[in-house]
Write a structure and sequence with these properties.
The complex is a heterodimer of chains A (209) and B (201). Chain A contains 4 helices and 11 strands. By secondary structure, chain A is an alpha+beta fold. In chain A, strand 7 (158-163) and strand 8 form a beta hairpin. Chain B is globular, with a radius of gyration of 19 Å. In chain B, helix 3 packs across helix 4, helix 4 (50-67) packs across helix 5 (77-99) and helix 9 (138-149) crosses helix 11 (170-184). The chains are: A alpha+beta (209), B mainly alpha (201).
């Protein structure tokens, strides 16, 4: 039996669930007799999934649980923030290595792909971003660091990455104020930095090679 | 495109915990999305009622909230939550047993109490299912939950209506989603799962 004659994953599922006409089911059973190890592994996995489905209860809690926990988190978040008016700033681009002459050595091309450095500033914090294009998959990685300014009361920031106004990733800074987003396809992204009592918005940046 | 991007960026529990510490409600929602079914289902599988399992879920996540600042970055959150949930489930089961009017009748009828040790395999399967589903995109997760884990056992028609997808796409989509789940889980096997998949190993 050649490999292409082995039942496909979807056929195995239909067969296990009894969704195939009896003649077709017999054919699949025959082809399984000589199936390769990968097909057998697929079959074992599907059997386990379907058995698990019947032998354990797996369900979502009632909506009231989520509502209660949402309120408890709101109380937690409020308790750890000093009372203040919420502020929202649009960050100003202070430095862009792509706007500099290449001879200055700021724009760089490495074996790993291209790198672009951006520095933004606001009243609350300075934000440095390094955008790497990763070859050969042509994805991007953004490494950032946040430097709070003045009497900013926190060093913990959450960072939201948006594409087409939809959140695609959420992370937080570590103890050095650093954060990373990896495996980003080319496209236009907006970054929002939050720290409880304020929010900094970085205008959309287009990542392309 | 956005869905593709979301699927490509796997957020770690460490990131979510840090964002929760920073007071980010979206990270808290994400943690609940990821683990509320695990915690609730563990209690259900020990034989608790829906109401009692809901209470245990609330208690477990409230303890998580109180512990956010002391959790280490290396801690495995799913195991931590499962341990807390099991501990409180056992306490409730023990209390129910003590409060039972007729202890003999209770002992004979309460299989969950007698099955605590034997049920280890069941909660490992719950954890395995929860982890696999958490690695999927929202549409796949909702589809598999509706088809395989909804107590009402909806028909394809009802699922299509609920998820706003063509009925003809349900069959092929469920297979694709399950195949994706298998591939995502290939490095994750609990002892119970490994034993079932490779009994002679």
């Amino acid at each position: 039996m050649n490999e292409s004659n082995a039942p496909q994953f979807s056929e195995l599922l239909d067969w296990l669930e009894g969704r195939l006409p009896s003649e077709q089911a017999l054919v699949v059973a025959e082809r399984l007799q000589a199936a390769d190890a990968a097909t057998q592994a697929d079959l074992d996995w599907l059997r386990l999934f379907l058995q698990a489905r019947h032998s354990v209860q797996f369900a979502s809690p009632p909506p009231r649980v989520r509502e209660t926990l949402r309120q408890r988190f709101a109380a937690y978040a409020e308790a750890r923030q000093p009372p203040s008016l919420f502020q929202r700033w649009l960050a100003t681009l202070k430095f862009d290595s792509h706007a500099q002459p290449a001879i200055a050595g700021i724009r760089s091309v490495t074996d790993q792909g291209q790198r672009r450095q951006l520095v933004y500033t606001t009243e609350a914090a300075e934000i440095a971003l390094t955008v790497h294009s990763i070859l050969p998959d042509k994805n991007f990685m953004v490494m950032g660091q946040i430097f709070p300014i003045g009497d900013t009361s926190t060093n913990a920031f959450s960072i939201q990455l948006l594409h087409d106004a939809v959140e695609v990733a959420l992370t937080a800074t570590d103890e050095l104020g650093e954060f990373t987003f990896a495996k980003l396809p080319a496209g236009e992204y907006e970054i929002v930095v939050s720290a409880g009592e304020y929010e900094v918005v970085i205008s959309p940046v287009y990542f392309q090679t | 495109m956005s869905q593709t991007v979301r699927n490509d960026i796997l957020q770690t529990d460490r990131d979510l915990i840090r964002a929760c510490r920073a007071g980010d409600a979206r990270a808290w929602e994400r943690l609940l999305d990821k683990y509320e079914r695990l915690v609730f289902s563990i209690s259900l599988n020990y034989g608790l009622t829906t109401d009692d399992a809901a209470d245990i879920t609330q208690i477990t996540f409230t303890i998580l909230l109180q512990s956010l600042n002391s959790l280490s970055d290396e801690m495995r959150l799913s195991s931590w939550l499962a341990t807390v949930a099991r501990r409180h489930t056992w306490r409730l089961l023990a209390r129910n047993r003590r409060e039972s009017v007729n202890p003999d009748e209770d002992l004979a009828g309460n299989e969950a109490v007698g099955g605590i040790v034997d049920d280890r395999e069941r909660w490992e399967l719950v954890e395995w299912l929860n982890h696999g589903l958490s690695l999927l995109g929202e549409r796949c997760r909702q589809l598999l939950l509706a088809l395989y884990f909804d107590a009402e056992q909806p028909t394809y028609e009802q699922v299509a209506d609920r998820l706003k997808i063509p009925i003809g796409s349900i069959g092929p989509s469920r297979a694709r989603c399950l195949e994706q789940m298998k591939q995502s889980l290939h490095t994750v096997e609990s002892p119970a799962v490994a034993h079932r998949l490779h009994p002679l190993a």
